[in-house]
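> call design_seq(struct)
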């Protein structure tokens, strides 16, 4: 599918100044998708023009069958380039466009998926940022909001769900017509239609009619998790409704898990998720926590994005950063996942620091001259740094003032559009603070600040903040923990609340010499920490002894950042981290700690140390396994990635008895070591109830040090587009084995050749393939070549950013390996 022309911000402003959209009535015929790829739509748009006689255009990236404006047929040159020209506008206008979309198998905008286990067909739409035009004619920009009323004709055995509740349905024989009430005013990217022979579970909770839907082949797994999902949904709706002083406005709230999707989409009242979130095995504590956070993230979008929408994509962070922040805020306050912020730090925040130092760094709020450029902003700066900065703002103004500001913001802008200035005005009013300096420093400046302790006169200490690239440091409100050793534990003697409103802040007299002074304890701000050599030694020696999950995550993230910047050999990090993992009591933290530990051994340490470090990780995992509980599951999975001896594999085989997932992981590790067991693969696949078990078998194939196997997997993932987006990263981890550089060398060129065409598959698949299938085990000669291709005009911005991020990561890995080899 070719890339479409991209709406510019100038065009959007001009169109928004001219038009007011009153409503959409859209008839959709899905019957052609039962055994084909054709979606038919008739879009009727009522809109007014502020300038009689003016001209504009409507977006439509489907084949136009007919189009009439105020009863006048539009033909010929008026239609083309994914737009329909609209001339001689009246004060009030009616546009009717009949269109056909025949590319639904491409998964862009409208997706048709066939479940290989039973050949059932499922259809789902996902329109962010500007893919609604692929389904029907619309004014596809966020600030032209209007009610949508859908009439959907589908095969008679299909269930259809959309944004509004209580649809009326009529049996038409071989088909059924669904008529949905109109929605509140919505931007064009959040309406949705999901259809298919779904397995559906419904529950009435606190006045809401909650629905969970999935393909039938996942019914057993959805049934298993339904109560947990309903509980999280109920808690989230209650929490956000109370905190924002605005209850979710309609009774129904559906959550639909669909195949072949990456991530999730915040469609109003009908959220769509990748069905990878319906776990096919017992989920680990970290996986359960992640799913809860994604559920709460998409729910928060009902307010941040759906009810109040950014005016243009330069304020994308108003949607995504707020939803990411709110998901962790709600998780800790309203669910069992009370260490959600610690997990956020241990896992995702480290990646944001890396990106923010690299070539793709940008201010959280950045100009978006076109939608194509805006798509590059769906990244870790917008999401992860953005959420971190909001956490800092909450600390800076205080949570009561922050919540008061949000309540007035929603009250003032509900069902409309807002900008950064609008939000800051409400927060400044509630907190009675001038936030001009805060806004400029945190939202309009790229790169992280650096924090370090320095000795002042006498025994005093100064906390110094340094801005990126010589810019002034931002204002920071953070905590500094002072710890003493008592036996094997560290006890916090004091927690210093520190404000840095310039280059430095003096700390109060600490008294007796402390064992450890921990900067950014409680992780309230976004800044890299540079400990001196003595503090680094204390962190390495005592990280496991710190008393809270957050303090341990602060210590480990500080050390990991030193590895990433080639200031600490990876082997020393592994030694420290294995000690932390063995004793870590907060279960959701074990998995991210182990993930970084394994990455350090596999990719950041010199090749000649890899097996030695993996052996030490495997031994630590065996120690955790002996103690049982949920930690045992996580440790066994890490053991399946680090096993190097027959004793390790014996333990794996014993632990995998009855655990299909662990059997797959063990077979993948054996294949990576050149010990492919085809009969065992066939046996496990025959017993696996997961309808996507073929992807696990493909992962075993991918892990082999065999050129033919690599070729087969590459074609399936990159050329035939068979692999679900949600499975790409796991497959890529099996494919790019660090010990197989020679076998993998040809695929670096294959990757370069694929880059120009990735954007045609849509934003999310393009981002996933550019990131997951990046040759992370390539040599230094690849770095300049891939950077040159990514910087060329033939690669779209969203793909280029992902490639440059991964390239900077590879560059950092090479530097870290050289550090470890130096005397």
């Amino acid at each position: 599918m070719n890339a479409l022309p991209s709406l510019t911000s100038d065009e959007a402003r001009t169109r928004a100044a001219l038009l007011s959209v009153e409503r959409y009535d859209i008839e959709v015929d899905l019957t052609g998708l039962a055994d084909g790829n054709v979606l038919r739509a008739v879009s009727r748009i009522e809109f007014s023009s502020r300038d009689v006689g003016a001209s504009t255009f409507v977006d439509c990236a489907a084949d136009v069958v007919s189009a009439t404006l105020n009863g006048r047929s539009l033909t010929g040159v008026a239609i083309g380039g994914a737009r329909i020209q609209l001339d001689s506008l009246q004060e009030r206008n009616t546009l009717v466009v009949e269109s056909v979309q025949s590319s639904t198998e491409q998964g862009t905008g409208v997706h048709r998926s066939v479940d290989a286990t039973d050949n059932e067909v499922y259809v789902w739409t996902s329109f962010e940022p500007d893919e609604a035009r692929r389904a029907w004619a619309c004014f596809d920009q966020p600030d032209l909001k209007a009610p949508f009323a859908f009439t959907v004709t589908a095969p008679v055995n299909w269930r259809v769900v959309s944004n509004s509740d209580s649809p009326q349905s009529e049996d038409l024989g071989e088909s059924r017509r669904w008529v949905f009430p109109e929605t509140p005013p919505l931007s064009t990217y959040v309406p949705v239609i999901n259809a298919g022979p779904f397995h559906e579970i419904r529950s009435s909770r606190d006045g809401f009619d909650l629905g969970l839907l999935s393909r039938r082949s996942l019914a057993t797994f959805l049934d298993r998790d339904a109560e947990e999902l309903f509980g999280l949904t109920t808690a989230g709706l209650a929490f956000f409704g109370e905190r924002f002083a605005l209850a979710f406005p309609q009774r129904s709230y559906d959550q639909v898990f669909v195949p072949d999707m990456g991530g999730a989409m915040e469609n109003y009242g009908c959220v769509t998720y990748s069905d990878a979130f319906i776990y096919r095995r017992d989920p680990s504590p970290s996986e359960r926590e992640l799913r809860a956070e994604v559920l709460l993230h998409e729910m928060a979008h009902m307010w941040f994005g759906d009810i109040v929408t950014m005016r243009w994509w330069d304020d994308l962070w108003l949607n995504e950063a707020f939803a990411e922040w709110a998901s962790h805020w709600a998780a800790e306050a309203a669910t069992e996942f009370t260490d959600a912020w610690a997990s956020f730090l241990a896992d995702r925040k480290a990646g944001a620091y890396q990106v923010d130092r690299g070539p793709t760094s940008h201010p959280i709020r950045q100009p978006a001259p076109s939608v194509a450029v805006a798509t590059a902003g769906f990244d870790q700066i917008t999401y992860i740094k953005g959420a971190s900065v909001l956490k800092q703002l909450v600390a800076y103004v205080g949570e009561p003032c922050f919540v008061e500001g949000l309540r007035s913001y929603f009250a003032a802008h509900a069902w409309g559009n807002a900008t950064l200035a609008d939000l800051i005005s409400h927060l400044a009013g509630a907190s009675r603070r001038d936030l001009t300096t805060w806004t400029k420093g945190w939202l309009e400046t790229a790169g992280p600040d650096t924090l370090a302790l320095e000795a002042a006169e006498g025994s005093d200490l100064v906390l110094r903040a340094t801005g990126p690239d010589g810019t002034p440091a931002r204002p920071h409100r953070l905590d500094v923990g002072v710890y003493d050793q008592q036996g094997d534990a560290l006890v916090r003697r004091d927690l210093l609340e520190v404000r840095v409103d310039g280059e430095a802040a003096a700390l109060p007299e600490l008294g007796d010499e402390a064992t450890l002074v921990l900067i950014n304890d409680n992780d309230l701000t976004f800044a890299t920490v540079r400990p001196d050599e003595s503090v680094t030694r204390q962190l390495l020696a005592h990280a496991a002894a710190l008393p809270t999950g957050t303090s341990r995550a602060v210590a480990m993230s500080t050390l990991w950042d030193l590895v990433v910047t080639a200031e600490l050999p990876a082997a020393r990090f592994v030694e420290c981290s294995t000690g932390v993992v063995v004793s870590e009591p907060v279960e959701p933290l074990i998995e991210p700690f182990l993930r970084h530990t394994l990455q350090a051994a596999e990719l950041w340490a010199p090749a000649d140390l890899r097996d030695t470090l993996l052996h030490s990780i495997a031994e630590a995992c065996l120690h955790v396994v002996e103690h049982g509980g949920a930690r045992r599951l996580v440790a066994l999975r890490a053991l399946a990635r680090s096993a190097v001896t027959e004793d390790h594999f014996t333990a794996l085989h014993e632990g995998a008895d009855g655990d299909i997932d662990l059997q797959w992981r063990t077979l993948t590790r054996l294949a990576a070591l050149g010990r492919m067991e085809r009969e065992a693969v066939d046996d496990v696949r025959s017993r696996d109830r997961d309808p996507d078990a073929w992807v696990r078998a493909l992962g075993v194939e991918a892990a082999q040090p065999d050129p033919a196997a690599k070729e087969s997997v590459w074609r399936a993932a990159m050329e035939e587009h068979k692999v679900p987006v949600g499975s790409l990263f796991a497959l890529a981890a099996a494919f790019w084995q660090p010990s197989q550089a020679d076998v993998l060398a040809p695929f670096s060129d294959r990757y370069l050749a694929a880059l120009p065409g990735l954007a045609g598959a849509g934003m999310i698949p393009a981002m996933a393939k550019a990131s997951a299938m990046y040759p992370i085990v390539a040599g230094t000669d690849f770095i300049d070549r891939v950077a040159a291709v990514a910087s060329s005009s033939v690669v779209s911005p969203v793909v280029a950013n992902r490639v440059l991020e991964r390239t900077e990561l590879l560059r950092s890995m090479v530097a870290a390996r050289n550090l470890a080899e130096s005397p």
